Amino acid sequence: MSATRKVRVRFAPSPTGALHIGGVRTALYNYLFAKNLGGDMILRIEDTDSKRFVPGAEDYIVEGLTWLGIKFDEGVGFGGNYGPYRQSERRDIYKRYVDELLAKGKAYYAFDTAAELDAKRAENANFQYDAHTRMQMNNSLSLSAEEVQARLERGDVYTVRFKIDPDQLIEINDMIRGEVHYKSDVLDDKVLYKSADQLPTYHLANVVDDHLMEVSHVIRGEEWLPSTPLHILLYRAFGWEDTMPQFAHLPLLLKPDGKGKLSKRDGDRLNFPVFPLDWKDPVSGDISKGYREAGYFPEAVINFLALLGWNPGTEQEMFSMDELIQAFNIQRCSKAGAKFDYEKGKWFNHQYMLLKDNMELAATLLPELQAKGIETTQAYVAEVLALVKGRMNFLHEFWANAAYFFQAPQSYDEKTVSKRWKDVSAMQMGELEAILQADDFSDMAALEAKVAAWCEEKAYGMGVPMNAFRLALVGEGKGPHIFDITRLIGKAETLQRLRRCVEVLG
RNA sequence: GGCCCAUUCGUCUAUCGGUUAGGACGCAAGAUUUUCAUUCUUGAAAGGGGAGUUCGAUUCUCCCAUGGGCUACCA
Q1: Spelled out in words, what is the top-level CATH class assigned to the domain A357-403?
Q2: pTM here?
């Protein structure tokens, strides 16, 4: 563990489906950690399980992380000098290292079939393939050399198992959890290599690749903590312990309610996304909602996720990616799992909405408005946004909050009518119309003063006439300041809405 | 069952032995007397239980309970 070693971290997902939000957080923490220390971020695809490979998953992962602003320095699709970065393309490399372990006597051939193993487990639920049981099994330790040779030459299907010596104490020095100890006796002789598909298992590939790619820090989910002693033993077996990466095991993301870790089903059940992007399952055809399609800003998702399991120790809540990189310190990660509170995600989106430039926001809204047949301009939409975005969490709530800036109310909300449209309203609106008619709408403050003066002179109070006026303009009892509305829709439209309302409501 | 990790308001968390246990989301109330919302103010809301160590424990140790993870020729 040389202190001067270049910081290199990797995000190593398995392309078995959409990238889970917990995986996104792991990628984020790796990224923040690396960038905070000026290190590199690697994308490695761990596709050693050919049975679970899902087409499209790899592209999905890259697209999702790119959308979120998590950048890679090297890896699949990003180049680099340590490739190939897809494990399925590294078969010969793994084979070489498996042979090395075999030659050193640190691993052995095992010929037990899946059915035989199942039978063993059926007769003893606690069966473990280890120092105590391996001699009763069919492997190169229990069988004669000739027999082993014969089976190999015959082409029998085999696995290579790691030979774990008992009575060893393995100490993990976790950056988040401190020292964790394991006894090697509880470990089983893990399968490192499968002859059937000529591929290693995760454990072997992971250790070999991290070593070869000069990974300095392994930051991964807590579910990996129990297999870390195995990994450490592998580093030892290869003689790589001096350059072994440092480990950090992140707490898991848990269900918002109930028990267990967050799953895709929770998203469906509670109606919130658990994936960065929409994902269509290639087999079932089911579509799972993504944060992007649900209307989240990537900045909001990042900010939200960053604070789920980590905090800077200050009371700052809003962080740009750069600020996160600056502030990130892995020792400040919490140890306990975090229930996933998506309500806070909405709040973050709201905050970023307020921060965003209205012209930029307007540009993304324009196509939707045009599709509705609305003729408008980006500048106008931006002005409307300035008035209504405070009451929105998502951009897709725009129309529901701003339709009346683009078209006259189609109807008048019944409740508002009964509450706000008084017997005197028609008469008052008639008077108001005359005042508006006489004004050129060039100065809203002046107009407002005129209207206020009228209310005072007639002793109407402001409430009754203004609420009726609002009803005429909006169709409901909501919306921003009335004279902001009239300023945007203009004199002709204002008068027209006023007349129509009197006509309809009488 | 075995091994490991964890445990502060409903949720995310701060606290590195001495605090009125702080902040944020959500919730409630009030204010902005033209609405709704934003915003602002205020409020309710927490150290799983039991032993120790200590002058003093949320903080350190142990036990228990609870939650979580792992225990595959999956990652």
Answers
A1: mainly alpha
A2: 0.94
